[in-house]
Design goal:
flat, 71 residues
Length: 71
């Protein structure tokens, strides 16, 4: 009798636990990326790659895409 209750509880709570573990993993990835990007070495490499220039060049294309999509 008690084993049936334990097994039923395990099956019902599995979805919530999986979601919690997935969101915990995403949070760890975000924190890890933040820690990496705050280091001076990473900032220097990002400056050499010209990420800011790349983002500035993409914005007009995105605006044009939304104009075409709204037509």
């Amino acid at each position: 009798m008690s084993m049936d209750i334990i097994q039923r509880d395990d099956l019902e709570g599995a979805g919530g636990k999986d979601t919690l573990l997935m969101l915990g993993g995403v949070a760890l990835c975000v924190v890890g990326a933040g820690l990496i990007l705050t280091s001076p070495i990473a900032k220097r490499y990002m400056g050499q790659l010209g990420i800011g220039d790349l983002a500035g060049g993409i914005v007009p294309d995105i605006e044009r895409y939304f104009k075409l999509r709204s037509m």
